[in-house]
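Sharing in case it's useful to others searching the archive later.

Someone asked me privately for the predicted structure of Metal-dependent carboxypeptidase, so I'm posting the question and my answer publicly. Question first, with the sequence:
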Amino acid sequence: MTDAYTALLDHSRETSALGHVAGRLGWDQETMMPRGAAEQRGEEMAAMTAVLHARRTDPRLSEWLAEIDDSALDPVGQAVLRHTRRSHERATRVPARLASEIARVTSVAQGIWAEARAKDDFQAFAPTLKEVLSLKREEGAALADGADVYDALLADYEPGTTAAEIATIFDAMRPRLVALRERVLGQPEPDGLSGTYDEAAQMKLSRHVARAFGYDMSRGRVDKAVHPFSSGSGNDVRITTRTDPADPFNCLYSTIHEVGHAAYEQNIDQAYLFTPLGQGVSMGVHESQSRIYENQLGRSRPFTGWLFEQLRDTFGEIGVADAEAFYRAVNRVRKGYIRTEADELQYNLHIMLRFDLERQLISRALEVSDLEDAWNTRFETDFGYPVDRPAHGVLQDVHWSVGLFGYFPTYALGNVYAGCLNEALRQAVPDLESALAAGDPSPATDWLRGALQTHGGLREPRDTIEAACGFAPHEGPLMDYLEAKFSELYGL
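And my answer, the predicted structure tokens:
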């Protein structure tokens, strides 16, 4: 190992550790920070971003990278260099001033969005969103260096993929999704749960379910937040969920979803800790883990049979007679506005809406002043009924307030990846359903850990999925799974 490579690893380790500290500031802001600290936290985040940006643009990185002979390294070393080169190249294109300003503005914008959402007032948020959008357009232009600006932003979340490639996948999915949804919504809707569910008891049960899916609570914790998320990597990976006294599914399935993210991070090879390989390789691959945990495993008939008994033991009668009725309640397709509460069938249509709108925002084909009307028009076209209020429409997601343009399509791409992984998983673990019926997803989570999670950032995103599945990812397995599941469930 060369002196240059050793120096690069040492530098990377310190940069990664500082990045973890910055991430903890973000976790605290979402969970425990007092409301009055928002402006101060914005300055703190800007300062941390300035430090990180300086390290990622350090001229010594170019010197070290030039000295290292890639061919003399093993695949791990070569992957480290690939990530480092990509990160350094992107960082050097963004002025330090701009990186710090984005961090400051988006930190403050998050609180403004939350207040506007609570008051159902998009106009109260619009000036802030306009400022965030302007900064992200500037960043995207700097990163693109004459190429497509949206693709440049997308590369932060799904490197190696273009918006055109994602649009091709979405265009193939949309007709089948719309046709299946129309057939399902023409059938009688299954009954849902009834009653009131103590929120402390929901949190206790959610922690029990998190452990069942392999979440290591000695290296994590479960808290509450307005918008559930997972934060951290390695040996400090935290998740949040939310509770609704009338809807325990919101808490339980948000928890399972975030555990999918967290388990990915916890299960990465410890040898990669504080290196570029020590975190999930992309958001699409990350979402494949959260979605397969939540849907193909967590919403399966055998697992919901076990979960039905857990809810009855915790809350008593819940308004459905048996495990089959509970399975139908978990998977019922119904009209609704909220992406995070959408069923498997309609979820991707929510993503496609956001993907198209944010591409238009970045390209300047759409401005913030017209965004609410554009959202409402598109939603009614896609879903067949109007948005009733901004909190159920353009204000429902935190992503744009914190500058995550390019993030949304990775949710649906993650579903596509999850469909492929589920097909491979069922072939590799043929007796999986008996374990799920006993409340034990470990045969599935063990397979996912060995096939995908332990490798972290070793491979590129699509290569990560292909190595796990044995075939290149495509939308076919997901659509086949959805059509089979909902045709059987609704007797189509």
